[in-house]
Structures are given as structure tokens and as C-alpha cells.
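QA checklist item 7 of 12: single-chain prediction sanity check.
[x] sequence parsed
[x] length recorded as 186
[x] structure emitted
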Amino acid sequence: MGIKRFRRKLVAPDVQTGAGTIGTTELADDAVTTAKLLAANVTTAKIADDAVTNAKLGPVLPKALKFQYDFGDLGGAQGAITLTDEDDAAQTIPDNALILRAYIEGITSSTSGGSATVKLGITGDDDAFIAATAFDNGEFDAGVLTELVAGIPIKTSAAVSVLATIATADLTAGKYNIWVEYMEGD
């Protein structure tokens, strides 16, 4: 008994443009097998970088956003600073997000001419991730990754920004990323 073959019209969308092409091909009934998947014969090589975005993950898969504090871009004056994405664009955690985890990734150690403190949180809860902490504490050092757990888990009731609130003295240097993992709630 041989492999059964059949003809089928296929629509093969172009990953870059979304345009589709229609053609016919002959497929065996075992065209995509576990063995072929394991042998890397079916790959994601034609999927554009970052093609699978948070919006395409659906409501049940965790999503992540990276917020950045960079003294060179945002300054270090006392007060609340709204963190941005790595391109210095504003971004928010969506309404009804269930914040599961948050991490701080130190890129450049923070410095201050005094005894600055920094707290990290969201709009409406400015210390949700970490209460006021000395700028020279380990969390703000280069090369350090720390899980922030102060007020987590959190459910947002509106779209919120991530904030760094500097107090008691200005910062004079520092760069870190805040990674926020969340799921979509109802």
C-alpha cells in the first residue's frame, strides 16, 4: 500500500507583507510528521523577528513589557518619572492586566550626589514593585537581576504607566530595565 496523495489548493501568506499566493501542490497524508519536526525540517526561518507580538498571543498566555529608566534620556531629578520603552516611547500596561511578576535588570549602576532613594511602581500605586530604597542598594547595580515582589500580584483597573519616584536627592547616573509579566484579565 503506497502513500496516498491528493491535490489541494493552498494559500501561503507572505509573513512580511501578509499578501497571499494561491497555487496547487501535491501533499502526502504524512507531509508533516513528528520526525520531520524534530529533524528541523519545519522551521520558523521565514517568520520575521518579533512577528509574534503581545497582541497576537491571546488572553491566556503571559505577556511581558520592558520599561526602561535611563538617566541619559530621562534625567534624575527628584519626583516621579514615567519609564519608557527602549526607544524612549511611552507605553502602558493595559486595563485589567493581572501583573504576575516584575524584575529589575541593572544595566548601569545608579549614582547620586546625596542619599537618593528610588521606589518603583505603577500609576496609582507608586511603590507597587519596591518601596523607597537607597540608590546604592544592590537592586540598582549593573549586572544584577532582582525579582520585585512588594505588592504583586496586582490587577489594574485602567491602563497604567511604570514609575520610578526619586526622593531626598537627585540621581546623577543609572540605567535599568523593569520587566513586567502579566496576563489579560476580565
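[x] summary fact logged: The chain has a mean pLDDT of 84.
[ ] second reviewer sign-off
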